[in-house]
Amino acid sequence: MTHQHLPASDIAERMRSTPLFGGLDDEQLGRLVEMGEIVDLAPGDRLIGEGEVADALFVILEGELDVTKRSGTTEIPLARVGPGALQGEIAALEGGRRLASVHAVTDAEALRIPVGAIRELLDAGPDVALSVIRTAVARLRSMEATLREREKLAGLGTLAAGLAHELNNPAAAAARSVRALGEAVAAAEALPRPSPPPRPPADAFAPRSALERADLIDEVATLTSGADTASALVDAGWTAASLRSLSLDVLPWLAADASVHQLLDELAMSVERISEIVGAVKGYAYLDQAPRQRVDVRVGLSQTLVILRHRIRDGGVTVVQELADDLPEIDAYGSELNQVWTNLVDNAIDAMDGAGTLRLNAARDGDGVRVTICNTGPAIPSDVRRRLFEPFFTTKPPGKGTGLGLHISHNVVARHGGRIEVESDADRTCFSIFLPATAP
Q1: How far apart are CA 79 and CA 33, in angstroms?
Q2: What is the domain partition of the chain in residue ranges?
Q3: pLDDT for the residue 320
Q4: Regarding predicted confidence, which is higher, 432 or 280?
Q5: What is the mean pLDDT of residues 358-375?
């Protein structure tokens, strides 16, 4: 795209209208314009790419641009900016990587100011440096507020995905059992009923292991029409020996009766499982309850494992729970603590790449509690460990994380008057959360 650029004087005046450059004199503004480079953009062109190394900041001179941040496969809109707006100053000042992307919506023009010019600018005096800091802080606060809301929505998405996954299995099993139960009842009603109906012997053998049960089913299957019928008879307490003591014409009715009872048991188990999941979600979110109350953290940890069970089960994660019996209840915001447990457990599963040992420990700590969540896997480097709770800091690739999960967790724990400690070595990483008996 080619067109007539703004004259240097107009560019300087546009820069003067920004909070960052408003305190500069004509000579300083002119120097920045000289050191800068005009960038022309067509609609859809990218000015800044999230994750790129920041070597400059930009002043928008003409046109409109969208600022977005990736979350998974979604681009989260953060702002639409126009003439006079600054972009990329946070990462440029930090010397890090871009926190967001910027794309042109219309034909646009921007002034690219390299890092060297920014350093020269900061040497102009404390007033200029303070203005830069104010601008950067305001931009960070705005971005954090937007992403905090997105983090809440992402948490709801995780919850919804877990629920859909968890509820689907028992619901499908219940539907199958209902269909099969109707067929089994119809088949049983069509058979002559013996009088009196036979019952399992008093010394009916209850298999103690899956192997014993499989052996019993194989033996009973030699007397019946199939493995499913044999399975139902074994679950009802029958063995091949006890069945041989009955007349052969009784076996079809006996098999139908056992199948009905087995399907009723399966249906009851499925419905009970659905009730367990719904109860866990209700408790997890503290629905219909005051936000602050007496909380048993063991319950919150267990409910979090129910919510994330699909992630645990679908990989090779082994969960070990060590929850003390004498754990006191604490005065806390239960739903916020559950968000902390979810962030830490979810991160632990990611750190293990879906396979390893997840250990949850809860113990008394004076009048309060200590919760430790450990995972096997590679150590966290010391330089990363120092920055874990900074907003927007993440070691995940762009789109895989907002860098706010641990920051939010840290703030929640601090709100409760507690603290988080991190230990990490070659084969284990542990986050320990200390919570007092009463939140301030």
Answers
A1: 26
A2: 8-124, 166-280, 290-435
A3: 92
A4: 432
A5: 93
Is the bond preceding 196 in cis, omega lying within 30 degrees of 0?
yes
Q: Is the pLDDT of residue 2 over 50?
A: no
Claim: this prediction has a pTM higher than 0.70:
no
CB atoms within 10 A of CB 27: 8
Distance (Å, whole) CA 427 – CA 114: 43
> What are the structure tokens assigned to 168, written together?
């689907």
Query: CB–CB of 373/360 below 8 Å?
Result: yes
What does the pLDDT read at residue 432?
Answer: 94
What does the pLDDT read at residue 138? 67
The answer regarding whether domain 290-435 maps to CATH 3.30.565.10 reads yes
pLDDT tens digit sequence for 400-430? 555 667 877 888 888 888 999 999 888 889 9
- In sequence order, the 6+-apart residues with CB closer than 8 A to the CB of 312 are 305, 319, 349, 358
* pLDDT tens readout for residues 108-162: 988 898 888 877 766 766 666 666 666 666 666 666 665 555 555 555 555 555 5
Q: What is the CATH number of domain 8-124?
A: 2.60.120.10
> Is residue 107 over pLDDT 80?
yes
pLDDT, position 155: 53
For all residues of the chain together, what is the average pLDDT? Answer: 76
Give yes or no for residue 260 having a pLDDT over 80: no
SS (H, E, C) the chain: CCCCCCCHHHHHHHHHCCCCCCCCCHHHHHHHHHHCEEEEECCCCEEECCCCECCEEEEEEECCEEEEEEECCEEEEEEEECCCCEECHHHHHHCCECCCEEEECCCEEEEEEEHHHHHHHHCCCHHHHHHHHHHHHHHHHHHHHHHHHHHHHHHHHHHHHHHHHHHHHHHHHHHHHHHHHHHHHHHHHCCCCCCCCCCCCCCCCCCCCHHHHHHHHHHHHCCCCCHHHHHHHHHCCCCHHHHHCCCHHHHHHHHHHHHHHHHHHHHHHHHHHHHHHHHHHHHHCCCCCCCEEEECHHHHHHHHHHHCHHHHHHCEEEEEEEECCCCCCEEEEHHHHHHHHHHHHHHHHHHCCCEEEEEEEEEEECCEEEEEEEEECCCCCHHHHCCCCCCCCCCCCCECCCCCHHHHHHHHHHHCCCEEEEEECCCEEEEEEEECCECC
Instruction: Encode 283-306: b = buried (16+ Cβ within 10 Å), e = exposed.
Output: bbbbeeeeeeeebbbbbbbbbbbb
Residue 396: its pLDDT value, please?
Answer: 65
Contact at 8 Å (CB) between 39 and 81?
no
